[in-house]
Design goal:
Helices cover 64% and strands 1% of the residues. With 269 residues, it is mainly α. The chain folds into two domains: 99 residues, Orthogonal Bundle (cca-adding enzyme, domain 2), CATH 1.10.3090.10; 144 residues, no CATH class.
């Protein structure tokens, strides 16, 4: 016989997470744990538990948690299929502003919150989900705050490089990116040093719903072709030229700009 004083079996059948004691509020990490388990199992949260989480959010109990523990829960939540549930719970219980204040500022309006939730529902790859979070900050000019989501160098660099590309994609219709700016973008995003990694980043960005239109597809293809063409340039004639002396760097730069102009002309960008 199963002894079940809190009707846990029925809650499992109904796919509901419920706290069973007021002592739940003694550990603010449980706020993130509830949100994470909701994301892992695609469960709902009982109304009384939502109320308790909300009171903890209003009291900002989560501020006592270390950043490492918060980011650990976020990383696990993003690895799940239903990671949108994690943010759903935090938004509903007023805890998003406690754990991720800059994201809360970026998606203060309901329309923006729905955009984030809808985007995450369409994504599976954890790296792409991190880029989705970075994108939400970038459209609110909060791109310098991406360390709110990660502290490991690899993830931070991925988001930093993606934000540079987001900026380019946002301005291509204006056609106001000069050759110099494009070259600087490629250098800053490490495209000329690691073309394969750059191509991988472009593929991740192409999976974001915001960039699946025809214009974005063309611009991402342009960046991929441009970075590949620049990395394949041959500068041996410049290096071996004795007449250039100290002007080799200038000649390399000029050839790169000319190449950018040719490629963008071919793409009509």
């Amino acid at each position: 016989k199963i002894i079940d004083p809190f009707n846990g079996v029925q809650d499992l059948r109904d796919r509901i997470i419920r706290h069973v004691s007021p002592a739940f509020s003694e550990d603010p990490l449980r706020i993130l744990r509830v949100a994470r388990f909701a994301a892992r199992f695609n469960f709902d949260v009982a109304n009384e538990t939502i109320e308790l989480l909300t009171s903890m959010g209003i009291n900002q109990d989560g501020l006592t948690l270390s950043r490492e523990r918060i980011l650990g829960e976020l990383d696990k939540a993003l690895s799940y299929k239903y990671s949108s549930q994690f943010f759903n719970i935090l938004i509903k219980t007023k805890n998003l502003r406690v754990f991720f204040p800059n994201l809360a500022k970026a998606i203060g309006e309901q329309r923006q919150q729905k955009m984030l939730i809808s985007t995450l529902e369409q994504l599976q790859d954890i790296k792409t989900k991190y880029l989705a979070l970075a994108y939400m900050l970038s459209i609110s000019s909060l791109q310098q705050k991406i360390n709110e989501f990660a502290n490991d160098k690899q993830t931070l660099n991925l988001m930093k490089h993606a934000i540079l590309i987001f900026e380019f994609l946002a301005h291509t219709r204006d056609n106001n990116f000069t050759e110099e700016q494009l070259l600087d973008l490629l250098k800053q995003s490490n495209a000329l040093r690691d073309n394969q990694q750059f191509a991988f980043l472009l593929r991740l960005i192409s999976e974001l719903p915001n960039f699946q239109n025809e214009i974005s597809r063309l611009n991402l293809e342009f960046l991929k072709e441009l970075s590949l063409t620049l990395t394949q340039l041959d500068f041996s004639d410049l290096v071996n030229s004795t007449s250039l002396n100290q002007n080799v760097a200038r000649a390399v730069y000029a050839r790169q700009l000319l190449t950018i102009n040719l490629v963008r002309t071919n793409y009509g960008i």
